[in-house]
C-alpha cells in the first residue's frame, strides 16, 4: 500500500535534497527517497527532541524546518549509505558493511541500554540506531543482530552454526562482528566457534569442484555429493541414493569433462555404455551387452555407470527402428531403477535430448535433465585461473581478454591454450608464463567451427 507522504514530490529539504516518495513510516517519522537516489529521514519535533535529550544525537545532527505550521527535522544520505528501519534493512554482503552496523549498534548501546532497538532506525551517517519508542514487546539484542545478519530469520546471533549457514560469514567473521557490536562472548562461545570453523572448513574441503562451471558444480554438490556424504540423514526422510542424471548440450561444452571429474572425486569404479561398446549386428546381442554392463556396475557398487551418446540407442521407439530397438530401450527402462536403488550412480550424456524416448526421460528413471552449454566469459575466466594457479607465471598476466576470446568455445580449447602457452614458455627458455605466451597460444588455436556445430 502506498504511503501518504508528508512532503510533496519536489519539495526542497534544508540540505538541498529534493523529496520524492515515502517508502517507510512510523508514528512520528518517515523515510523518503530523494531525487539524487539517496534517502532522507523526516521526523516530528517531539521524536527528535527525545533523541537529543537522551544523548543519542547532537542538536545539529538533524536540520530543523517548517512545513505548514509543523516543525520537522531531516537528514539526508547518499544511495551508498544505509538509512532504513532495522527490520527492513538488507543483510550485509561484506564483513566491512557488517562491522559498520555493529559499531553503530555498540555506540547506541553505550548511550542507552534499556530501550529495545527492534524498531530502531539505522542512520549510517550518524553511526546510530535511533529508537522509535514503540510499545511492543522487547527483543533481545542477540536476536536483533541475528535477524539482521540473516535477512529476516528470527535467530539468535549466538546460534553460530545456523548463522554460518544462513549468512555470508564464517565463524571467525561472526566472532568479530558480535564482539564489535558489544555483545560478550564467553569461553564456551569461543570454543564452539573454533569447532564450527574447523567443521565448516572440513566440509568445504570435501566439496566437489568443477572450475568454470559454477551452476553444474552447485547441482552436483547439492543433488549428488551431499546425499552420498549424508546417507543416513537423507534416508530418515525417505531419500535414497542419488537419482540418475542426463547432461545434454552441444559437442565440446564440457559434459565428458564434468563426468570425468566426478568419477575422479568419488573414487568409485566406473563403467561405460556407448555405441562402440554395445553395438552388434546380431539380434538380442546389444540387449545382452547392456545387461552385462549393468550387472558389473551392480556387482562393484557403489559405482558410476556412464551412458554416452545415449541418443544412439535410446531414441524414440515411435520412430520405427524395429523390434530389436524396442527391446534395447526396454532393457534400459528395466535396469535403471534397479541400479539406482542399489548404489549405482547413472549419468547419461547426449547432444540430442529431443531424440530420446519419452519413457526414458520420465521422472523415476532420470529425475534431472541438465543443460550444459558453452562456457561464458566469467566461467572461462574461472577455469583459466584454476589451470594457471599451480604454474609459475608473471604477475602482470591479464586473463580477461583471453577469457573473452575463449567464451562460447569448447572447454578443451581453454585447456589447450594454457598447455600451449606453457610449451611456448619452455621452448623460449623462460621459466615463467607470460601474457605474450598465452596470447600467442590463443592466436594459434582459432575456433574450429566445424567441430562445434
Q: What spatial order of strands do you see in the largest sheet?
A: 1-2-3-5-4
Class derived from helix and strand content:
alpha/beta
Helix fraction, binned, reads: 40-55%
CATH topology of the largest domain, which one? Answer: Rossmann fold
The whole-number mean of residue pLDDT values reads 84
Poorly predicted ranges: 449-453
- Main CATH class of the largest domain: Alpha Beta
Which CATH-level-2 architecture of the largest domain? 3-Layer(aba) Sandwich
Strand content: 15-25%
Chain oligomer state: single chain
Ordered list of secondary-structure elements with their pairings:
Elements: E1 19-25, E2 29-34, E3 39-44, H1 45-53, E4 63-67, E5 70-77, E6 83-85, H2 95-111, E7 121-123, E8 128-130, H3 141-150, H4 160-166, H5 171-180, H6 187-205, H7 214-229, H8 231-236, E9 244-248, H9 255-266, E10 270-273, H10 275-278, H11 285-299, E11 303-307, H12 323-341, E12 344-350, H13 358-361, E13 366-371, H14 377-388, H15 400-406, H16 411-427, H17 435-443, H18 449-452
Parallel strand pairs: 9-12, 9-13, 10-11, 11-12
Antiparallel strand pairs: 1-2, 2-3, 3-5, 4-5, 6-7, 7-8
Helix pairs in contact: 2-5, 11-12, 14-15, 14-16, 16-17
Amino acid at each position: 500500500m502506498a504511503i501518504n507522504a508528508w512532503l510533496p514530490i519536489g519539495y526542497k529539504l534544508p540540505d538541498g535534497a529534493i523529496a520524492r516518495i515515502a517508502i517507510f513510516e512510523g508514528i512520528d517519522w518517515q523515510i523518503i527517497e530523494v531525487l539524487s537516489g539517496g534517502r532522507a529521514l523526516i521526523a516530528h519535533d517531539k521524536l527528535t527532541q527525545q533523541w537529543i535529550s537522551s544523548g543519542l544525537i547532537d542538536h545539529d545532527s538533524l536540520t530543523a524546518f517548517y512545513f505548514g505550521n509543523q516543525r520537522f527535522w531531516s537528514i539526508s544520505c547518499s544511495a551508498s549509505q544505509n538509512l532504513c528501519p532495522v527490520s527492513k534493512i538488507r543483510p550485509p554482503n561484506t564483513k566491512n558493511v557488517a562491522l559498520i552496523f555493529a559499531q553503530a549498534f555498540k555506540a547506541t548501546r553505550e548511550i542507552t541500554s534499556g530501550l529495545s532497538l527492534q524498531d530502531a532506525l539505522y542512520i549510517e551517517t550518524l553511526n546510530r540506531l535511533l529508537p522509535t519508542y514503540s510499545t511492543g514487546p522487547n527483543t533481545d539484542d542477540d536476536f536483533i543482530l541475528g535477524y539482521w545478519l540473516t535477512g529476516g530469520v528470527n535467530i539468535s546471533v549466538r546460534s553460530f552454526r545456523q548463522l554460518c549457514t544462513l549468512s555470508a560469514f564464517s565463524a571467525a567473521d561472526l566472532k568479530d562482528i558480535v564482539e564489535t557490536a558489544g555483545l560478550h562472548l564467553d569461553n564456551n562461545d569461543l570454543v564452539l566457534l573454533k569447532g564450527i570453523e574447523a567443521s565448516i572448513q572440513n566440509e568445504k574441503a570435501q566439496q566437489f569442484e568443477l572450475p568454470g562451471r559454477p551452476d553444474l558444480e552447485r547441482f552436483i554438490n547439492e543433488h549428488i555429493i551431499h546425499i552420498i556424504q549424508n546417507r543416513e540423514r537423507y534416508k530418515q526422510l525417505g531419500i535414497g541414493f542419488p537419482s540418475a542424471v542426463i547432461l545434454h548440450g552441444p559437442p565440446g561444452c564440457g559434459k565428458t569433462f564434468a563426468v570425468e571429474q566426478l568419477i575422479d572425486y568419488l573414487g568409485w569404479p566406473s563403467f561405460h555404455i556407448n555405441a562402440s561398446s554395445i553395438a552388434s549386428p546380431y539380434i538380442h546381442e546389444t540387449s545382452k551387452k547392456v545387461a552385462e554392463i549393468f550387472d558389473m556396475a551392480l556387482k562393484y557398487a557403489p559405482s558410476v555407470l556412464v551412458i554416452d551418446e545415449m541418443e544412439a540407442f535410446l531414441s524414440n521407439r515411435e520412430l520405427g527402428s524395429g523390434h530389436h530397438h524396442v527391446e534395447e530401450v526396454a532393457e534400459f527402462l528395466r535396469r535403471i531403477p534397479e541400479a539406482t536403488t542399489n548404489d549405482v550412480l547413472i549419468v547419461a550424456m547426449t547432444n540430442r535430448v529431443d531424440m530420446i524416448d519419452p519413457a526414458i526421460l520420465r521422472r523415476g528413471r532420470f529425475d534431472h535433465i541438465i543443460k550444459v552449454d558453452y562456457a561464458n566469459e566469467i566461467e572461462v575466466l574461472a577455469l583459466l585461473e584454476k589451470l594457471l594457479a599451480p604454474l609459475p607465471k608473471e604477475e602482470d598476466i591479464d586473463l580477461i581478454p583471453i577469457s573473452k576470446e575463449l567464451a562460447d568455445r569448447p572447454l578443451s580449447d581453454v585447456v589447450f591454450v594454457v598447455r600451449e602457452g606453457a610449451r611456448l614458455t619452455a621452448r623460449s627458455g623462460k621459466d615463467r608464463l607470460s601474457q605474450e605466451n598465452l596470447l600467442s597460444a590463443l592466436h594459434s588455436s582459432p575456433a574450429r567451427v566445424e567441430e562445434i556445430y
